TrEMBL record:
InterPro entries in the cross-refs: G_ENGB_dom, GTP-bd, GTP-bd_ribosome_bio_YsxC, P-loop_NTPase
GN (gene name): engB
One CC-aspect GO term: cytosol
EngB-type G domain span: 22-196
Protein name: Probable GTP-binding protein EngB
Cofactor(s) it depends on: Mg(2+)
UniProt-listed HAMAP family: GTPase_EngB
Keywords of the record: Cell cycle, Cell division, GTP-binding, Magnesium, Metal-binding, Nucleotide-binding, Septation
Domain of life: Bacteria
GO function term, MF aspect, one: GTP binding
Pfam families linked: MMR_HSR1
């Protein structure tokens, strides 16, 4: 697959307004500021395919991109904004849970976490919902360039050990948009999900 050909399709305010549940979807999720937009832009080699919302608490949309006819990337709203009212947080969480559980065409979930702050409570929750619904998960430890190579490897190994406790297919890789680390690993994983 040539991810450079990816283009924006549509935005949806919630999962009830997504396009038909056909083809194959791969979703990207992460805490706000985890580096999700940067990763999507790096993967697709586009400057501003995915844009960051700099206004926490504003209604966040699910953005859909198409790699090829019937093959989509889904940019889920970032979670974990401290400033967001509790009610809004709960609504987002319910909506994410519903999406992970009910979306038949969802093949895999990419969870992005800052390598310096991995596996926060909501990250764990996302992974758990995904594996419980039979989805494969790829965890990307983002901004890997922020750690020296020894610390980077130690963190990778620690998170890989933790990943085993989820009792599902949870792979963990390093990623950096800045230094282009892990981009091939990501595209190979997407290729495998889109293959069948
Ligand atoms: P999002 O909220 O998850 O979409 O995160 P963004 O992609 O907007 O990134 C959040 C912040 O982290 C921005 O200031 C980015 O410049 C920075 N960032 C993203 N990826 C990297 C990376 O690979 N390395 C470094 N050093 N900074 C990054």
């Amino acid at each position: 697959w040539n991810y450079h050909l990816t283009h924006f399709v549509t935005s949806a305010p919630d999962i009830r307004h997504l396009p038909a549940d056909t083809g194959i979807e791969v979703a990207f999720a992460g805490r706000s500021n985890a580096g999700k937009s940067s990763a999507l832009n790096t993967l697709t080699n586009q400057k501003s395919l995915a844009r960051t919302s700099k206004t926490p608490g504003r209604t966040q949309l699910i953005n859909l991109f198409q790699v090829a006819e019937g093959y989509r990337l889904v940019d889920l709203p970032g979670y974990g904004y401290a400033e967001v009212p509790e009610e809004t947080k709960l609504k987002w969480q319910r909506s994410l849970a519903e999406y992970l559980h009910d979306r038949h065409c969802l093949k895999g979930l990419v969870v992005l976490m800052d390598i310096r702050h991995p596996l926060k409570e909501l990250d764990r929750q996302m992974i758990l919902w995904a594996v419980q619904s039979g989805r494969e998960v790829l965890v990307l430890l983002t901004k890997a360039d922020k750690l020296a190579s020894g610390a980077r490897k130690a963190q990778l190994n620690a998170v890989r050990e933790e990943a085993k406790t989820f009792l599902g297919t949870v792979e963990v890789e390093l990623f950096s948009s800045l230094k282009k680390i892990g981009v091939d690993k990501l595209s190979q994983k997407l290729d495998s999900w889109y293959r069948d």
